[in-house]
Write a structure and sequence with these properties.
123 residues; alpha+beta; two-stranded antiparallel sheet; 3-stranded mixed beta sheet
Length: 123
């Protein structure tokens, strides 16, 4: 235990561990989606929950959708919708088109991929 290299390696490992703990506990920008900017120096972000609400409102305007749940992640938007009337395939096509249009209106720097699942509810 008196070896200088052993003590140096242990102190480097301890310092690295402390640094990783600090990084894990500090808030980051992962909950924010960056927006496109017309000027290079300007930065703007949109909260993921806000984007999900906007996309859910757009999904609810599609005829035939009774309930919609939207989950926005960094690279993917997952949409699940319950269909009460109309053909499920038509509703899915309309829903994909509406969600793509709304996603483009959000002007995200890296637009996420849209994944849609529909199911027929007969309650």
């Amino acid at each position: 235990m008196d070896d200088v290299w052993m003590l140096t390696g242990a102190s480097v490992a301890a310092a690295t561990g402390v640094w990783l703990m600090v990084l894990a506990l500090t808030p980051g920008l992962r909950h924010w989606l960056p927006l496109r900017s017309p000027t290079p120096g300007l930065r703007a972000c949109l909260d993921r929950d806000s984007a999900a609400v906007l996309l859910r409102d757009a999904a609810m305007r599609v005829p035939g959708v009774a309930k919609a749940r939207i989950r926005v992640r960094r690279h993917r938007v997952k949409a699940r919708a319950d269909v009460r009337f109309r053909d499920s395939r038509q509703v899915k096509d309309d829903l994909i088109a509406v969600l793509r249009e709304e996603r483009d209106r959000l002007a995200l720097a890296r637009p996420p991929r849209i994944v849609v699942r529909v199911r027929r509810r007969t309650d």
